[in-house]
């Protein structure tokens, strides 16, 4: 089974390899792995090529994910004991994962108060919460190529792809020796911003020395010493999981809701949606690379929220943030470990992996 053809979640290596080999803007320092281990020496470019050609029957194991984004406390369960998927935004969590092709995947988030599962078996997707005793059964359209809820990063491979897909040629890519993850020897690929002024110190991806599958992802902030985001295997197996892992039967007493997912809109319909979003928010990017700032108009309502629908409004959420002011004007600010967001009183949103001063300068333009 090829990780490129059967696991779209690891296609992240392609754009990074292109940046290294074609873009010409990536600096190569500390380019070889330490020779004092059993692993042969590999350059960063060789490792990226290894990942692209990696092929395993499947993958399963235990994953520990932690996030310290510096966000304010959110209502509801959070932290190590929570089994709700929404709690992944903060704290430390343990998950079991299985994958046997792009359409056979399972994630089980384990907590002291229960378990939540996301299971895909072909065109059937199940979302189950043992704590709420509820399950949603989604029927995907024929030929669907990705899980409906792919916003949940189930494995280090998926986390790697999401981070690395956003990289630009302003990144130093190097190999910082070797490490051990889940009892396996691995190379440590390091991505560092070339330019100063970013809240991101570096991104470290541990790549298995034998299978070339990513085993762990760490994102370090300039504001805290421990990783701001870390997703990694504590145990892993590269055999094909049993087919029974992807068959879900709701426990007795579960409230089941069944929904049929409509086929994706045609390209013309999608373009109209994009055009409408661009017209409403007027996004713009100031700067480049890791210190770029995205500016846009604040939407009148939450994405996906219909007019008159229950739930907090944009104004209510913004009003909960600390108030700031300066020569640029006034507004509300959210400062995290990896990003800062600023909502001005005149309806502008500025966000970037930068300190507040960089947003203030952009707001004054």
Automatic annotation (TrEMBL):
Matches recorded under InterPro entries: LolA/LolB/LppX (IPR029046), Sporulation_related (IPR052944)
Classification via Gene3D superfamilies: Lipoprotein localisation LolA/LolB/LppX
SUPFAM superfamilies for the chain: Prokaryotic lipoproteins and lipoprotein localization factors
Protein name per Swiss-Prot or TrEMBL: Outer membrane lipoprotein-sorting protein
Originating organism: Luteipulveratus flavus
Upper lineage: Bacteria, Bacillati, Actinomycetota, Actinomycetes, Micrococcales
